[in-house]
Amino acid sequence: QMTLNDFIRRYVAPNFVLDEEHNVMMGVFIQGPEDCISDERLLRRIRNLPEYQFLFDARRLMELDVGNLQRWGDFEHKEIVFPITRTKLNNALAAAEANERARQEAAVTVAPVPVEGVYNSVFNAKWGYVESGHAAEPLGMRVVEANATEPEKMWSESEVNVIPRPEEIDVIEEDEEEEDEGEASGARLEFLVLTSEKGWPYKKFDVTFKDVFVRKEVLRVWNVLKEDIDGWPTAAGARLGRRAYAVVGTPGIGKSLAVGSFVLHKLLQYDPAKIAVVAYFVEGSMYLFRKTGEQAGTVVEYKTPLHGMLAIQALDERQVAGYYIFDVTKERRPSDALPCKHWGGIVLTSPAGINYEDWMKQREADHIFVNCYTAREMKAFYAWQAHNSPRDPQLSEEVRKRELEKGWKNLLKRRIYEVGPLPRFVFREKAYEGRRSAIIKMENAVTERESEHYIKVLLHTADWYEDGSTHKLVKLVRVLEEKSTIAPASAVSPVALTMVQGRAVREEAESSRNRPVSPWIERRLLELVTGKNLLSSTLGQVLGTKAEVSAWELERFGCFAFMSEDVADTIIGKMKYLPRTVGDERPSVLADKNTVGRVPSERCIFDHRKGTDNIPGAVARMLQVGVLYKPLSNYFPVLDAFYLVERKRAAAAKKKSGQASDTPTGDQSSAERVITFIGLQVTRQDTHNTTASKMASFMEYMTLNFNNWEVLKRTMEWEFIYIQHADSTPMTRRQRGTDQGKSTSDPQAPENLSEPRVEQYQVQLDAEIAAQLFAAFKRNNVGVGCGGGVGRAVSRPP
User: Fold this and answer.
1) What is the spatial distance between Cα 523 and Cα 519, in angstroms, rounded to a whole number?
2) CA-to-CA separations, 478 to 38, 250, 335, 363, in angstroms, rounded
3) Residues 6+ apart with CB under 8 A from 434
4) pLDDT at position 791, please?
5) Which of 286, 353, 432, 736 gives 357 a disulfide partner, CB atoms 3.0 to 4.6 angstroms apart?
6) pLDDT category, 436, cuts 50, 70, 90?
7) Considering just the CA atoms, what is the radius of gyration of the chain in Å?
8) So where are the chain's domains?
9) pLDDT computed for residue 330 by the predictor
10) What is the CA 762 to chain-centroid distance, rounded?
11) Per the database record, which ranges form the Retrotransposon hot spot protein,C-terminal domain (predicted)?
């Protein structure tokens, strides 16, 4: 991950300076050195460096799928690499083989240790649950202790197997937010609780960790596994269908404890003719659960993963069918040596590919993605904790209920808002404080490369790296995406399949996206990347050609183009009026260069949901002239961004008569000031009609978030600007409201605003505007804000 300039400074010339255009990453440089350096002498020096040769050979070997020492040992064309690389790899391979032989010889004499009583404890674990929709109970949650041998309630398949498409995620999250804010319309199971009196393998059978929280996400994992196992043969020695899975989820959601423990419980209760033994790898040990034979109902612990691996390999060779559960850590990753002839298995891992992708490729395994907690599940978790905590005998039940509600609304909801729906960091004060401080510290030390990564986080295109930052910023979200024809068929994940000419064709497959883990983080990142020159290259691409950028990126960042004066001038010059009648022409107030706030000099990113009273740490604000307001959420109704401008009444009169005003008119002492609301909507379609219901929601949100909205909304003038991609079909007609949802007979009512009171304009972000934008951001004095400097952020709550 080193730049070319850093490489040369470290290994060739300490004072060397390379121009920014050619200062690429070393991985890019290796692909075409001559494109970056024309000095042949310098090129020779670089190419003769052992460090360069190692990098060159590493890239070449990865392209040939030689990514580890085992594959290097099998590789038949070792002569293609430099001698120094070949010697280093051969020595490493020899040392690894010697160590492996020594460990295997030592393992032969090590006997496992019996663990008494835990098999029956896991097998006979008891069930409880938490159910919402009970207004009389604390937090509206009914808690039923774990006393049942079978779960009293269970979700349906349709409730569990929910895989939205990427464009549906925002709507689902909005619905979840509204469910948390409002009272449940009826009783609803939030999660099950599975209790083992002797604990679980994940916590080394520590009896203080008896409870496992089985959410819908956890049950879904088992449903996928069970469907596969149901198809296994029972005949000894049969090998058909032993599939493995990587169960992937955001760190901190209890994935390892919940999924691993619940799957273990279900495997022990499954038909022993198909699964005779279960192996659980965790924390440097392996627990072996035997279901058949003389040792049925017993558990032994192997004190190292190697000993456990050798034990299940021996069982596999004897054609004993089993299942393994492998909990991944940085120090312990799944091995290619995990059995596959007669065994299936799961690997529990974070999304960091380095932890499991080599194993997954070798094993031809599939993904199962696990979502984070919902807000209601977090509340249910809190209710369960409170139910099982010691109670103050001096507090009445009513006072206790109020205290719990206060703790939820004033403390825990704020933590969720800031660090995300991660139990590890919400319910532990020190963990919360540490995570929050780490996020702030990380943002304060941002580099250009990190800023580009943050932009990818905001666009939901960031890869997951265990680099000390990514896992603090993003959460994994399961999505359903279209996939092309796949081969071989054995590599298919749990997806919708059809048969075309005898081949399996994957129509849609389970996949994942990485999104900001919390609104607080998303807002801070958006403020960070829109308040620094570091946005330049990405924003230039965002407003470029469709071949270079997605429409989603355009929608995310397109409105910020109005903060560059040169670009705004070009856009305004290309804006076309969408008339009410043929021949009706009205110039935009933005055409008058003397309009105050015409190019916003500041930007304010705000979370609109339910108003400031329900956003932890939020403060009420006043709408100000010259500030670009960008809603944090993508499901803000009607508009993507907006700002206010101000001009004199004399100029306003000219506008209404169809005259453009390039100079101020009227006397300063007598001219009345007029406010105009500029609404920005980025759209891909040639129509963007709205509904009365959406407009009413827009008005409601504005009232909740801005103290002066009620005063402004009926006196100011309105303009909506529809911003379209270069390849979109241009709008040619005025966008209208429909009669769906809320409406009144009053044409001046807020719900019916779009028809009589709003002037509408359309602009195509064509190649000229894209070039202008790129040029503006290429310069050091990036024109983000009127006056050519970098636009500053409006002050925000901590």
Assistant:
1) 6
2) 47, 11, 26, 22
3) none
4) 40
5) 353
6) very high
7) 31
8) 4-107, 113-370, 531-793
9) 80
10) 33
11) 247-492
